[in-house]
From TrEMBL, chain A:
<keyword id="KW-0472">Membrane</keyword>
<dbReference type="GO" id="GO:0006865">
    <property type="term" value="P:amino acid transport"/>
</dbReference>
<keyword id="KW-0029">Amino-acid transport</keyword>
<feature type="transmembrane region" description="Helical">
    <location>
        <begin position="76"/>
        <end position="97"/>
    </location>
</feature>
<dbReference type="GO" id="GO:0005886">
    <property type="term" value="C:plasma membrane"/>
</dbReference>
<dbReference type="InterPro" id="IPR052157">
    <property type="entry name" value="BCAA_transport_permease"/>
</dbReference>
<keyword id="KW-1133">Transmembrane helix</keyword>
<feature type="transmembrane region" description="Helical">
    <location>
        <begin position="45"/>
        <end position="64"/>
    </location>
</feature>
<feature type="transmembrane region" description="Helical">
    <location>
        <begin position="304"/>
        <end position="326"/>
    </location>
</feature>
UniProtKB/TrEMBL annotation, chain B:
<feature type="transmembrane region" description="Helical">
    <location>
        <begin position="161"/>
        <end position="184"/>
    </location>
</feature>
<feature type="transmembrane region" description="Helical">
    <location>
        <begin position="196"/>
        <end position="215"/>
    </location>
</feature>
<keyword id="KW-0812">Transmembrane</keyword>
<dbReference type="GO" id="GO:0005886">
    <property type="term" value="C:plasma membrane"/>
</dbReference>
<keyword id="KW-0472">Membrane</keyword>
<dbReference type="InterPro" id="IPR043428">
    <property type="entry name" value="LivM-like"/>
</dbReference>
<keyword id="KW-1003">Cell membrane</keyword>
<dbReference type="Pfam" id="PF02653">
    <property type="entry name" value="BPD_transp_2"/>
</dbReference>
<feature type="transmembrane region" description="Helical">
    <location>
        <begin position="82"/>
        <end position="102"/>
    </location>
</feature>
Length: 404, 430
């Protein structure tokens, strides 16, 4: 009988990390460009999750008037897109009504912290007011987990795709990779990854900025090669009996979507920051607000864009978190706030890329920690994020990657 | 329920959370440490004091303790039970201060925003530890056996009904007169707008507290309101019941904490704390070890928070980890900012305003169907969040502004200060 192991914990951690990374991207933008350590970010995530609920399952929100146009049961994908748009609009509202005024008054960092705290109180209780404190979930098709059971035996690597149906484990497919084939695929993947990295990093200098960092591109190309070859060269044969080692990884297309959506959000933000004039203005403002203003950057507009993008990313994180956990409640954002802050500080507050990477690291370490620690300590899952944060602050307060 | 009872509950809240706020003010107001984990010390103070004063074996409690200090000291000498309780509260304060030392050593070197987030995280983790570790303090089941100091003595009766009424009622009237005098004196010294505001608040209070019962024809209620210390239903002859005594007791402790902090900030030591807050490089350049000052301020503030926690446990009679959510810290920050950062009197005023909003709107519960109680609570907190932002925008110094200090900067060249009558070295630095 196969049981779940380290690989399964890694996969769960990747999903957790993706959600944290989506939150951390937005927070790091606000933190570095708008210079607000935004304690309301967790509640912006909650708001995003509930906005999707408005369109997806209006019955869950008692205070919603019945006759609002557009409100009706829509699929989560449509509801999610609407929620992201609305979340961005709301976020623009926070900037215009609150933070812009305080910035005009040259409020210091601590004032901004406490203002964002007041906003957090308002947002969380607005959710409580309108939707109550119940745990609800989106109206979606139930998603079944698919188990990837991997067996290592004298033959090589065998992967069995299984699923639980009505209590029984059903085998969907079985692929075998003989030793030499598995080794060849792995070697090809590493080779392609390294070649891409070498090719891309060759002409790099301070005047050449790649859209995607060569390291990221290298790892991505390697992984893509691995998956493509594994899919092309799969054979039906394989040996499952008496394996040397076996492990089970539970995933679903829900998990895949979470990771892919976060990846796309990162890529889109990357394009915005690196290829557009607005992105250049944002980076200049993050670097030195006064200098940017002197050089003709419309700082107010840049800040508005920052809040819009951050609200958008927060809503993405909220919808993903609510969907992934099948649970939406008024405290979900606040419980994400600490890991998200930990990711931003760990990645270095000036670097959205660092924050996203640190978000993945923190999500992975939370789930790996639960896997490695004794079960009695599993309740301290969030504390793990925190211990990492404190360790990072003590050793490298500028973040692991510094200014990237 | 008479208004007097409501007022007593409210004032007890104000005394407890006022002490909590004064503790926060030492950290945030005077030293500039944004401790978003202040509630952790409130929780530690409550738990440690309760466990130190609790009997050895209590049904349904499986945590550390039951040290029964009041009985231990009570056996030694008369009045020892109270001394035992004070030792218990001192234990709670010391525990809170020591934990804050552990927290402060690594975090107080950090930037202010990093300190805020780490402190919030540590408080969240500590609450989780108290919630999950049953061997520690009984985990989620909490502690139900809270020792109430002097509980056996009450209700106190001085003799006959008339004597009780005259003495306690007379004392009540004296408190109103003294309060009125203080308000009038403050309003006289203050500017026009403040004077109008204070006058309006006083008028509302008088209308609500004295005139409104009259209109309802409730002479008995008016009498209870005026003679708030005297409870005719406590015992055969009437007298002072435990709630009223506890209010006095909590107020006395708040007074002691207030006095201690005032002494601290009105000293050269307090001047260094403020210098650390305003610009840490300056005291550093003058050879002060600012890190040590920060740690000491953290410990003092946390100790006061612990004392407030001990009082809170008595008032509620039951403690469990979920009562100590981070919202309490944010409430204290709101109270400090409403009243005036770095102003101890302002903190107490801010706490009063805060709890007046938070509990004073509870009478609305009578008019709103009970299924909307969650909505009402949420609306209240939204109001408080909005108030926090509005105050920070329009009056960042709070209602009272920063207080003035007795201790000035020694400065030979400066002309004699008017307020201190030209005493050498006198003057206010703010």
């Amino acid at each position: 009988m196969v049981s779940t192991g380290l690989l399964d914990a890694l996969t769960t951690g990747l999903v957790t990390g993706s959600i944290i990374a989506a939150g951390a991207l937005g927070l790091s933008l606000i933190y570095s460009i708008a210079e607000v350590p935004n304690f309301a970010h967790g509640d912006m995530i909650t708001i995003g999750a509930y906005l999707a609920l408005v369109f997806n399952k209006p019955a869950a929100i008692p205070f919603l008037p019945d006759s609002v146009p557009l409100v009706g049961t829509t699929s989560l994908a449509v509801a999610g897109v609407l929620a992201v748009g609305l979340g961005a609009t709301f976020s623009a509202g926070y900037e215009l009504t609150v933070f812009r005024r305080f910035r005009r008054k040259d409020a210091d960092l601590i004032t901004m912290v406490i203002v964002s705290l007041g906003l957090a109180l308002i947002l969380r209780n607005a959710v409580l007011f309108l939707a109550g404190s119940k745990n609800v979930s989106y109206a979606t098709e139930p998603v079944r987990d698919v188990f990837w059971d991997a067996y290592l035996s004298g033959f090589g690597l065998t992967i069995q795709l299984t699923q639980r149906r009505a209590g029984e484990i059903v085998t969907l497919a079985q692929w075998g990779y003989a030793w030499w084939l598995a080794a060849a695929i792995l070697a090809a993947a590493v080779g392609v990854g390294y070649a891409v990295y070498r090719e891309r990093s060759a002409g790099e200098g301070f005047d050449v900025v790649h859209l995607v960092d060569p390291r990221v591109l290298g790892v991505g190309a390697g992984l893509a090669t691995l998956l493509a070859l594994a899919a092309l060269l799969r054979f039906q044969s394989g040996v499952v009996a008496d394996p040397l080692a076996s492990t089970r990884v539970g995933t679903s297309w829900k998990d895949g979507t979470v990771v892919v959506v976060t990846g796309l959000a990162m890529l889109a933000l990357n394009v915005l920051l690196k290829t557009t004039k607005l992105g250049k203005a944002m980076r200049a403002t993050a670097d030195n607000l006064d200098l940017a203003e002197v050089r003709g950057v419309d700082v107010d507009r840049v800040q508005l864009v920052v809040w819009v993008v951050a609200g958008l990313l927060a809503a993405v994180a909220g919808v993903l978190a609510g969907w992934s956990a099948s649970n939406v409640n008024p405290n979900m954002g606040f419980s994400l706030l600490l890991p998200v802050f930990a990711a931003v500080i760990m990645g270095g507050i000036r670097s959205p890329y660092g924050s996203a990477l640190a978000g993945l690291v923190i999500g992975l370490s939370m789930d790996l920690g639960v896997y490695f620690l004794p079960p009695s300590l599993a309740v301290y899952r969030e504390a793990i994020a925190f211990v990492i944060l404190i360790a990072v602050l003590l050793v490298r307060p500028e973040g692991l990657w510094g200014d990237v | 329920m008479a208004l007097a009872d409501f007022l007593i509950t409210l004032l007890t809240f104000v005394a407890i959370y006022g002490l909590f706020g004064v503790g926060l003010n030492v950290k945030y107001g005077f030293t500039g440490l944004v401790d978003f984990g202040h509630v952790a010390y409130f929780m530690i103070g409550a738990y440690v004091t309760v466990v130190l004063t609790m009997p050895a074996s209590v049904q349904g409690y499986g945590g550390i303790g039951g040290f029964d200090l009041p009985a231990l000291f009570g056996a030694l000498f008369p009045g020892g039970a109270l001394v035992g309780w004070f030792v218990g509260i001192a234990g709670g304060m010391v525990a809170a201060a020591l934990v804050s030392l552990l927290v402060g050593v690594p975090t107080l070197r950090l930037r202010e925003d990093y300190l805020a987030i780490t402190a919030l995280g540590i408080a969240t983790i500590l609450t989780a530890v108290f919630e999950n570790e049953e061997w520690l303090f009984n985990g989620p089941f909490g502690v139900r056996s809270v020792y109430q100091p002097l509980a056996g003595v009450f209700p106190v009766s001085l003799g006959s009904f008339t004597l009780n009424m005259v003495v306690l009622g007379g004392l009540s009237v004296v408190t109103f007169l003294a309060g009125g005098f203080l308000v009038v004196r403050y309003a006289r010294d203050a500017g026009g707008r403040t004077r109008a505001l204070v006058g309006a608040a006083a008028a509302v209070f008088v209308l609500w507290y004295f005139v409104q019962p009259l209109l309802g024809g409730g002479m008995v209620e008016l009498q209870t309101n005026v003679m708030w210390l005297f409870d005719p239903t406590a015992g055969p002859e009437g007298g002072l019941d435990y709630d009223r005594f506890f209010l006095l007791f909590a107020t006395a402790l708040l007074g002691a904490g207030y006095w201690w902090v005032e002494r601290t900030v009105n000293s050269p030591y307090g001047r260094v704390l403020r210098a650390v807050r305003d610009d840490e490089d300056v005291p550093k350049a003058l050879g002060k070890d600012t890190y040590r000052y920060k740690i000491q301020a953290m410990m003092v503030g946390s100790g006061l928070g612990g004392a407030a926690g001990a009082l809170y446990a008595i008032q509620l009679g039951f403690i469990s980890p979920e009562q100590f959510a981070s919202t309490l810290t944010f409430f204290a920050f709101t109270a400090v900012i409403i009243g005036g950062t770095a102003n101890n009197a302002g903190v107490i005023l801010g706490t009063a305003v805060f709890w007046l909003i938070n509990s004073g709107t509870r009478f609305l519960n009578d008019f709103v169907p009970s299924e909307f109680s969650v909505q009402l609570a949420a609306a209240r907190l939204m109001l408080i969040g909005a108030l926090l932002i509005v105050i920070l925008y329009y009056r960042p110094e709070g209602l009272l502004g920063e207080q003035e200090y007795d201790v000035g900067v020694a400065d030979g060249d400066a002309p004699p200060d008017r307020t201190t009558g030209g005493v050498a070295g006198g003057g206010t630095d703010d």
